[in-house]
Amino acid sequence: MPSTATAGASHRSRLRLIVIQTLVFSLLATLGARLYYLQVVSGERYQGKAASQSVREIVVQPQRGLIVDAMGRPLVTNRLTWVVSLDRTLLGRMSAADRAELLRRTSEAIGLGVGEIEAKLLLCGDDGAVAGQCWNGSPYQPVPVAQDVKEGAALRILEQPEDFPGVVVDRQSVRQYPAPYGINAAHVLGYLSPITKDELESAEDSGDSSVNGASVVGRAGVEKEYDEWLRGQPGYDQVAVDSKGRVREDVSGLEAQPGDTLVTSIDAKVQSVVEEQLAAMIAQQRRTRDPVTKRNFEADSGAAVVLEAKTGRIVAMASQPTYDPSVWVGGITDKQLKRLYSEAAGTPLLARSFQGQFAPGSTWKPFMTVGALTHGYAPSTVLPCSSAVQIGNRAFHNHESAAYGPITFARALEVSCNTFFFQVGMHFWQTLGADADDASAKDPLVEQAERFGFGERTGVDLPGEASGRVADRKWKRKYYESMKDYYCGIAKKPQDTGPKGTSDFVYKFAREFCVEGWKYKITDAANFAIGQGDTIVTPLQLARGYAAISNGGTLWVPRVGKAIVSPDGKVIREIEPKKERKLKIPASVLRYLDDALQGVALRGTMNWKLQGFPLDKVQIRAKTGSAEVYGKQSTGWVASYTKDYVVVMMMSQGGTGSGSTGDGIRAIWEALYGVDGEQVDPGKAAIPGVTPPAQLPNFGDDGSILPPARAKGGE
């Protein structure tokens, strides 16, 4: 018979077994219930989540809008290019050896170094990321690593997907420049580059969905000014992928919307002539000896502008040096970028037509004439045109003319008599502001220059415009305050006469500036009256001023954009000419000035370049100018106009105005009006009908550009 102790132990064992069995059955019941809940009750929801993990959203970049000229000729279009991208997500799942092998194989296929591919795969913001190379888009989107890949290489990757897991090959559009009539127009058109992190964050904060991390945006020219119209709206594709990241099927998507077309006021045929003539004039002057320095002219840069006189629309605009706009397509190299900013190369990125600032020389005199004739002087006023005027201890000379005796304003403009205008400038200084310390003294010549828009931006629809400068009394005092420490620092030390030391001129100037650099002296007023000294203008500002003389006194805001057209050919917005203000100038003064400037072409300083030109049929008004620049050769100008157009050309370190650019000015007028010898043939005019076209280009229902209607006698 078992003992009581043995029976108690057996009972406890059975009790433990029952407890364990109960726990096991409870756990099994719980797991079963959970399994039933997951598979039956919530099965559809979790199945959807699992499926969503194999679906990726790929942003589809829109095709950027076209840019065309006033006649519908394409200036900027798009072309398809093979692009190779890598899936960072899939690369992250690979072993180090597999990843290295894939990058090596891809590098070999597309001809790009492994290190360059690695740099492009880094997210901007990661350690080691280099701006301009790193990926600024979504980390879940395939990263483009090579553009303009040869078709053979692209097809090889597509045909051997097992060898290139995670490598995506597709065709994307990039900018193309058809260059009708061989034009360049780089500074007008501008360029594109990838969106920056700050720009992307700003767009996201404002709710702008038209850009993403893979977007390119306009950086200059009309590409920047009209970027929001040109860029279009991105779409997306949702695709199912397998465990290796390979696309198996399209799930859904939203089609990208192409950008709108920008119609410009540029005429490609005129632009071609302007660019050709500007380059030819510079090349010609570089072969010409400067009679003053006895060496060839540097002719280091230049610009030209053609405006519609009655609207302010820009028909053509060119700058030299220039660059190939396609250099930005696919990413610019450090070497190429350095050259664009290089002073040794002439700073090709600078648009001298509206960003360059130069002393206007004698082209300034017509505006001074208006100021004088509306403040006490009369068309009958006669002043002596001597060869020089003594002001203080210095003789101020004529530049392009000798002594002509007593003459009127009209004759002074014809022969470009400096000494005549010196006297006008000195007269106003002596009668209204003889106190050189008085920064608030009135000056009708300064006031008139400002009314013509000098010293302020024109408002042209191109970014980065310079404002120029009207160097009056207030400016001189501000300049002194900003520079006195620098020049006084030079003046207070003994002159360094070493090879790299301070020149005698600079040392003397510094000492004088330190003592009385704020004073607006009579010599400043004299220089101002002939466009010398510290006053500077842009070629576009000067062209706008002459347009106001031509059209009866209306100052227009220059415009390149003419209309925005949707991809289906509908005009969304017409960009109308914009008046800035009507100048309060008596009609009699403008008529007098108009006749005087016609005399410059018929008898004056421009006549020698217009021999044999049919001035009776194409009545050109003109003014030449040569601005002296310390340490450099003169800046040459010619500003000219008719009732239809304004044509301005300038050349830095080119010598006299007519001598440096006169032939080019004539050639542009011949193209505009169809001049052949002494005859005018409207059928040969660059713009059909001679006068600017009022109509927009013709667009098909699909947004394609149709040939312009053939005007009678036109092209």
From TrEMBL:
Pfam family, one: Transpeptidase
Chain ranges of the Penicillin-binding protein dimerisation domain: 60-249
Residue ranges crossing the lipid bilayer per the database entry: none
Keyword Nucleus: no
Chain segments carrying region Disordered: 693-715
Keywords in alphabetical order: Cell inner membrane, Cell membrane, Hydrolase, Membrane, Protease
Entry keyword annotation includes Glycosyltransferase: no
Positions of the Penicillin-binding protein transpeptidase domain: 302-659
NCBIfam families: pbp2_mrdA (TIGR03423)
Protein family according to the UniProt entry: Belongs to the transpeptidase family.
Name under which the protein is recorded: Penicillin-binding protein 2
